[in-house]
């Protein structure tokens, strides 16, 4: 599998459609040796689902390559807040007042500032993380500028056309003066770009199927 060619194909496809989102190369479950060709090619934005796995893979690389931008795209437990703030530049899964409180403490303790997306449970799915869109304003008031919230993130239901969900997330961001959208994965990133996705999260289309 030619990872570099896969990546170029995605860039070319997006460019041909007039889109230029940042691509979070989702490297969860893949070894660093599998990922390394893309790093050597010059790509710098990567996503991981789990703090512990990311620590093992990325701690040294981030020390050696200072402009690597690491994104946590999976849910975050409060007891991992310190570890997440140490390692990740962006956290896409802000979804509760308790997690907000933990992250504020971690940032102060470590003297670090990170960027955050609030995860919206856009399809109202019981099994998914994220807050109900009706609770967004309350969470933003609770945060009150204490964390650098840059935008919203969503994962639409797998069994529905995602387009309306992307449209709704964009409207929600606009209503709350949030400029960034993290939405769109391998199967639907083109549709997400139609609604101004700033970050798309692509894994298998770059790195191949996960085992």
Short description:
This protein has nine helices and eight strands. With 211 residues, the chain is of the alpha/beta class. It has an eight-stranded parallel sheet with strand order 7-6-5-4-3-2-1-8.
Describe the structure.
Helix content is 43%, strand content 18%. It has 211 residues and is α/β, with parallel strands linked by helices. It has one domain (3-207): TIM Barrel, CATH 3.20.20. Helix 4 packs across helix 5 (97-110). The longest helix is centred in the first third of the chain and has 14 residues, at 3-16. It is globular. The model has no long low-confidence stretch (mean pLDDT 96).
Number of helices: 9
Strand line-up across the major sheet: 7-6-5-4-3-2-1-8
Order of helices and strands: HEHEHEHEHEHEHEHEH
At the first level of CATH, the class is: Alpha Beta
Tell me the major beta sheet.
8 strands, parallel
Tell me the strand percentage band.
15-25%
- Termini separation: 14 Å
Class based on secondary structure composition and strand pairing: alpha/beta
Query: Which word captures the global form?
Result: globular
Number of domains: 1
Number of strands: 8
The name CATH uses for the topology is TIM Barrel
Low-confidence stretches: none
* Share in helix: 40-55%
* Radius of gyration using CA atoms only: 17 Å
CATH level-two architecture: Alpha-Beta Barrel
Mean pLDDT across every amino acid position: 96
- For the record, what is the CATH homologous superfamily label? Alanine racemase
């Amino acid at each position: 599998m030619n990872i570099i060619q896969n990546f170029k194909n995605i860039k070319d496809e997006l460019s041909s459609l007039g889109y230029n989102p940042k691509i979070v190369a989702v490297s969860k479950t893949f070894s660093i040796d599998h990922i390394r060709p893309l790093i050597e090619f010059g790509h710098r934005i990567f996503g991981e689902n789990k703090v512990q796995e990311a620590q093992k893979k990325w701690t040294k690389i981030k020390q050696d390559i200072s402009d690597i931008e690491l994104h946590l795209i999976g849910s975050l437990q409060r007891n991992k807040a310190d570890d997440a703030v140490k390692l990740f530049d962006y956290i896409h899964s802000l979804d509760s007042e308790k997690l907000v409180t933990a992250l504020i403490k971690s940032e102060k303790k470590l003297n670090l500032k990170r960027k955050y997306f609030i995860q919206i449970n856009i399809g109202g799915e019981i099994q998914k993380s994220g807050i109900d869109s009706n609770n967004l304003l309350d969470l933003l008031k609770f945060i009150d500028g204490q964390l650098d919230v840059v935008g919203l993130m969503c994962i639409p239901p797998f069994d529905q056309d995602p387009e309306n969900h992307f449209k709704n997330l964009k409207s929600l961001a606009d209503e709350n003066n949030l400029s960034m959208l993290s939405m769109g994965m391998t199967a639907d990133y083109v549709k997400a770009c139609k609604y101004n996705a700033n970050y798309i999260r692509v894994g298998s289309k770059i790195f191949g199927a996960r085992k």
